Amino acid sequence: MLATIGVGSVQELFDCQIPAGVRLGRALDLPAGMGEQDVYAHLRELASRNVSAEQEISFLGAGMYDHYVPALIDMLMERSEFLTPYTPYQPEISQGGLQVMFEYQTAICELTGLPVSNASVYEGPSAVAAAGYLAKLHNGRDRLVVSAGLHPHSIQTLRTLAHGYGMSVVEVPLVDGVTDVEAWTEAIDADTSAAIFAQPNFYGAVEDAAALSAAAKSAAGGEGKAPVVVAQVDPIALGVLAAPGECGVDVAVGEGQPLGNRLDYGGPSFGLFAAREEYLRRMPGRIAGETVDVAGRRGFVLTLQTREQHIRREKATSNICTSQALNALAGVVYLAWLGRRGIVELGELLLARTHYARETLTALEGVEALHTQPVIRELAVRLDPDIDLAAVKARCARAGVNPGVDIHALTARESDRGGLLVAITEQRARADIDRLADVLGAAVAAERRREAVPA
Amino acid sequence: MSDAGYPDDLLYHPEHDWARIEAGESQEATLGITWYAQDALGEVVFFEAPAVGTRLVQGSPYAEVESVKAVSDVVAPLSGEIVAVNDALEDSPQLINEDPYGEGWMVRIAPSDPGEREQLMDAEAYSATLGG
After folding, report:
1. Sign for the pseudo-dihedral over CA of A58, A64, A65, A71
2. Chain-wide mean pLDDT for chain B?
């Protein structure tokens, strides 16, 4: 090859192509190589610094939850037919994978009560941002109104993309844990492209989705001016909540991790994206469609590809040109495993345990509810201001319990100081909740005693 | 599909768009894409006209036409305001392939500058640009 291009050596090729000013000019400063046994020992030591939900009783949540993943899912995901293929651009050899996408889309449509879904996007926050862009493509407006109850990662991601798309983001505050409907209505006008809220919201509270959707539509003044109403939903909570499609929501997005995917230190997972039919051509991501072949047999293909980058280039509906097929497979298998009855039973179980957890924890000295709204699977409490939350968490960790997420660390809102977000899954038994109460109560009391002593 | 042809009573823009100046005082212009354009696109599956009242600028794209494999800009051969759109194309976009100069018409405008017609080609000149 070198001879063909008329260069004497690889070094000569680099020398004549790469400007001297950007070349390093020395060998890379790497440590000496290690033997396999030593590498293994080194990696094992690094890994041992992590504590997983398997090693402590974990009440961590805030968007990703420690649900049980049945062995069935790993067994199917590890099949090479699902594990190894790339994008199914050649439908003839991809019917299995395309059918899974189609079944997944169908399940998401049933769960959200909306008629169209894509084959998944990367995760929840970027799905929210993509919905913001869909609204701009649809109505050409530049203003996004978002509830402060949206996950902070969703708000940040939305702001990042909004900046690129020339859109502004206005935040509406919460009142007693839910979106302030008056402020929401006040903030929405005829220039608003989309109105976005979360259900349940970041603080675990159930919002009045129907009221927020209706208020958004009438606030803009008239049918033609209504913003696109977007809800970021927790798919597990949809077992007991009214479907977004039935609440006037136009686009439902969400983090799919709770469906059949483990925590895995934050990913990979998938994002769900469903909408009313009129937004179909503005949707991002892959869409699997049902069709017939030349012999009239039912088959599946990628459809509506003219939305995507490889055809529409800079006018595409999104920069995403993939789907999280493997994680979405886990999601649809999980939903099939739970079934219609199972997802309702799970929701009811979570409702009962979460309310029990809130009662039990708020009965502790120095712990109060951050809000008293109905909750489904996550609750927010606040420690008295004189108590050091980080120190309390450290004490709990030593007792083998992770009590939850430091809310202020994620939101940076003054009103969230001392706030703790406690997540409940079916893996947290009532006894685990009792243990949390004991450990948290003891930690708070110990910190109080310590604080009372002059430093 | 229709047969290749470029009617003499139309004016043509090099981006494969045609204009027909309607009879009558208002001199409205009906716009569409040529046989060559629909043939290159293949089976048209979607066309959404902009709203009545939208202002077009000669040479600028005002809509998109989608086939199974591609999306193409539809360029305005003349400037003006849209006075009518062909609603039939929403349910039957294939009319653009079957009858690009008749039932496949896209929008009708009230031209803002009659002088712009000078810049368009007649059927013979347009055919010549298409080569052998």
Report:
1. negative
2. 92
Mean of pLDDT values over A35-53: 95
What is the tens place of the pLDDT at every residue in B24-40? 888 899 999 999 999 99
Q: How many CB atoms lie within 10 A of CB A372?
A: 13
Per-residue pLDDT of A237-274, as tens digits, reads 999 999 999 999 999 999 999 999 999 988 899 999 99
CB contact under 8 A, B71 and A281: no
pLDDT tens figures, A343-377: 999 999 999 999 999 999 999 999 999 999 999 99
- Half-sphere CA count of A183, side-chain side, radius 13 A: 13
Instruction: Report chain A residues whose CB lies below 8 A from the CB of B67.
Output: 306
- Whether A311 sits inside 8 A of B46 (CB atoms) is no
CA geometry: angle at A376 spanning A372 and A379, to 5°? Answer: 50
Q: What is the pLDDT of residue A316?
A: 81
Q: Give the pLDDT score at A308.
A: 79
| Closest C-alpha among A92, A120, A93 to residue A287 | A120
Q: Average pLDDT of A266-289?
A: 94
**Quick count: other Cβ atoms within 10 Å of Cβ A202?**
29
Helix (H, G, I), strand (E, B) or coil at A120: coil
Contacts of B69 in chain A (CB under 8 A): 306, 311
In degrees rounded to 5, what are phi and psi of residue A433? -65, -40
Using the CB atoms, write b or e for A140-173: b if 16+ within 10 Å: ebebbbbbbbbbbbbbebbbebbeeeebebebbe
Domains and CATH numbers, chain A: 57-66+341-452 (3.90.1150.10), 71-334 (3.40.640.10)
> What is the residue-averaged pLDDT of chain A?
95
Q: How many CB pairs under 8 A join A and B?
A: 15
Check CB contact of B52 with chain A, cutoff 8 Å. Answer: no
Tokens 């050649």 belong to residue: A90
| Domains and their CATH numbers in chain B | 11-129 (2.40.50.100)
Provide the sign of the torsion angle of the four alpha carbons A338, A340, A345, A348, taken in this order. positive
- Contact of A367 with A380, CB cutoff 8 Å: no
Residues of A with CB under 8 A from a CB of B: 281, 306, 311-312, 315
